[in-house]
Structures are given as structure tokens and as C-alpha cells.
Design brief:
Order of helices and strands: HHEEH
Helix content: over 70%
Largest sheet: 2 strands, antiparallel
Strand order of the largest sheet: 1-2
Structural class: mainly alpha
Distance between the termini: 22 Å
Number of strands: 2
């Protein structure tokens, strides 16, 4: 059940990023390292969309964990 929900979230995010390349790029290329330095990471179009969708799922998992551990 949980895996199905996360897989569905990934599929929806990937579909959205496939329709909007700019959103996928904006969501993934600007990163900050542990020292607070900005850097740009460039990847091929399909890879950046998959990475963006995975980040959506990772963010959801971290937010859920935060809610559970605070309550």
C-alpha cells in the first residue's frame, strides 16, 4: 500500500515534469552543498525529469517522517 502511494506520486510528478521541462530543470539544477555553496548540475533531459520526480517523492517521505516523529 505505501509503496503503491509513493509509486503513484512518482508517476504523477514525472508526468508533470514531462509536460514542463523548465519546471524539472528549476527543481533540480540549483543545489546547495553542505557548506552552503551553490552549484549547478546538468544532466540529459530525461534524466533531469526522473531526478526531479524522485526528489518530489523524497521530499514527501521526509515531510511524513517529520510529522510522525514530532507527534
Amino acid at each position: 500500500e505505501k509503496l503503491r502511494v509513493l509509486t503513484g506520486l512518482y508517476d504523477k510528478a514525472l508526468q508533470s515534469f514531462n509536460q514542463n521541462d523548465t519546471a524539472a530543470v528549476q527543481f533540480t539544477v540549483n543545489n546547495v552543498d553542505s557548506a552552503g555553496n551553490n552549484y549547478v548540475k546538468l544532466k540529459a533531459g530525461d534524466e533531469i525529469k526522473k531526478e526531479a520526480a524522485l526528489k518530489v517523492v523524497a521530499n514527501a517521505m521526509m515531510n511524513l517522517d517529520e510529522v510522525i516523529t514530532k507527534n
